[in-house]
Amino acid sequence: MGVEETASTPSVTGVLGGPSAGPMVPRLLLGARLRRLREGRGVSREEAGQVIRGSRSKISRMEAGRHGFKLRDVADLLTLYGVTDEAERATLLTLAEAANTPAWWQDYHDVVPAWSQAYLAAEQAAALIRCYEVQRVPALLQTRDYARAAIRLAHADASEGEIDRHLALRMTRQRILDGRSATRLWAVIDEAALRRPVGGLPTMRAQLRHLIEMCGHPRVSVQVLPFLAGGHSAESGPMTIVRLPGSELPDVVHLERLATALYPDRPADVECYWDAMNRLVVEAESPDETPTILHRILQET
Questions:
Q1: Is there a contact between 198 and 204 (Cβ–Cβ < 8 Å)?
Q2: Are residues 175 and 42 in the same domain?
Q3: Residue 201 located in a structural domain
Q4: What is the structure's pLDDT at 13?
Q5: Which of these, 167, 204, 205, 216, has the minimum number of CB atoms within 10 Å of its CB?
Q6: Half-sphere exposure (Cβ direction) of 299: Cα atoms closer than 13 Å
Q7: Which sign, positive or negative, has the C-alpha torsion 38, 41, 42, 44?
Q8: Cα distance between residue 21 and residue 186, in whole Å
Q9: What is the pLDDT of the chain when averaged over all its residues?
Q10: Is 86 inside a domain boundary?
């Protein structure tokens, strides 16, 4: 390919977000780029799979960014697709190396189920996270004591050591809200979650005070959906939408269930959840009102 193709290749340093961002973003970027290159050359997935001694499904997984990349496979595909520009090849091979970087949560592999890995990857790399919670304060806004109580409820048979591991993981996740490349969090919390004393009244009161403090965080917006709002656009339950950095990456919708999670990824489905989230923020109280609401609930608790 020529200069035109090189110019459309994303900057590696511009989107990876630092060494802790994990492998998800480079996998998605490289996968999307390889797909465009293949389609631009009129190469089928079957033909591409044969070149890397694989199958059509392997090419599909690579282009969807669902696993790491062998450097030899990427180099062979770039040759097949006619990418001869050395700068572009170097950029894409650097993305392949980053895509194989171990995720930070692998240190907690014993308490990270397979179904949650995709979300942890998205969360760690996120530019923006928007969420709606019904039963609990969002994990990224929980105090240590509240988080421990919530984890114990979710893992009733876990040992204290396992609870500690889950807690350490949750507290580590919260680091994305601070630092130079901090994630933007916009949370809508149902009033029910704020009035349910998880961990007992002292723990809940401390949690409410923490939420009041977080309302002043420059990267955090909190809204309350009061009981008086009546029916609303997210009655199907909690949801999270993650927007990744750059303009080429798809948004990630995460619907956590008791022992699994759903990731609707069809564009029409993602748009449906965005529509529900956007209507929620209109139905909820303004972020400016949140400290007042929290103070009132705190006085009543």
A1: yes
A2: no
A3: yes
A4: 45
A5: 216
A6: 6
A7: negative
A8: 20
A9: 90
A10: yes
